[in-house]
């Protein structure tokens, strides 16, 4: 895997990540890669680099930068959607493994290497759906995981002060020291040299102005991003048995949403994958709030069998007769793991 960035965000306010259903009283636990790309693209507009950014990513055959989705961060522990081909482990009398949507990367390392997980060492935080060390017992009134879900009430008042429309909105409230992490992969060294600075600047701008929904209320903000630069194969390494060596076939474990390009050869009769529908609304002066066209995408945690590393594409999902294209990023950020058919 090429060089890239490992980014940690530690929120200072609630975050609103809209669910697929769009319900205001529900919230998603993953800030998906297509939403992250849209947020960064909006920041690039404010930084005066929109055309260069789109030419390097959405309009390019091979994008210069690909983002993972944003997953929970618990202290210094990176949690992630585990590979569907390896999760859940065999049933346990002590831990209901399938109740965990996110697991530490070291657990994934053990799974893909074929090692058993010690059931005595782990417990599931039911609110965040994270697998955490079993010694992580909260004191009275404290949350045990990286975040909790809260519903906050507010009211919209018309300009004359006569009409009041109360409503409630669900959000994520992060525990001290917790947050979200993501990765950015560069196409090559030239892309790294050109885009490390602008991507870092965009993320710093977003940390101050907000990610996700309800930004006008001050939601979605964080401390300045903690950015580690290096080889992603080392920063997100999986030791043990190596995929693609010694007769072991590679599967591609998706850390992002994925929309395949027409030229990519994926064996859809094999692998272990999940498909999700993505929608959303346009944020543009040309038509603020108009619904985007829906797109079927491969979900995080899927394991695909492909002739080469998946790259993905960014289809135009603008409403009919819209003034300009609206791109939904389906670029793949994937790690090779040994493929074992279940």
Write the layout of secondary structure elements.
Elements: E1 3-9, H1 33-46, H2 50-56, E2 65-67, E3 71-74, E4 77-80, E5 103-104, H3 105-112, E6 122-125, E7 130-133, E8 147-157, E9 164-174, E10 179-186, H4 189-209, E11 226-231, H5 232-235, E12 250-254, E13 275-278, E14 295-298, E15 303-304, E16 312-313, E17 330-331, E18 334-338
Give a description of the structure:
By secondary structure, this protein is of the alpha+beta class. The chain contains five helices and 18 strands. The strands form six sheets. Strands 1, 2, 3, 4, 5, 10 and 11 form a seven-stranded antiparallel sheet that branches. Helix 1 runs antiparallel to helix 2 and helix 1 crosses helix 4. The longest helix is centred in the middle third of the chain and has 21 residues. It is globular, with a radius of gyration of 20 Å. The protein starts with a strand and ends with a strand. About 1% of the residues have low confidence.
In summary, what is this structure?
By secondary structure, this protein is α+β, with helices and mostly antiparallel strands. The chain has five helices and 18 strands.
> What are the segments in which pLDDT stays under 50 over at least 5 consecutive residues?
139-143
CA gyration radius, whole angstroms: 20 Å
- Strand tally is 18
Helix count? 5
Element-level helix/strand string:
EHHEEEEHEEEEEHEHEEEEEEE
The residue-averaged pLDDT reads 89
> Which shape, going by the Cα principal axes?
globular
Report on the biggest sheet.
7 strands, antiparallel
Separation, N- and C-terminal Cα atoms: 26 Å
Q: Please bin the fraction of helical residues.
A: 10-25%
Subunit arrangement of the protein: single chain
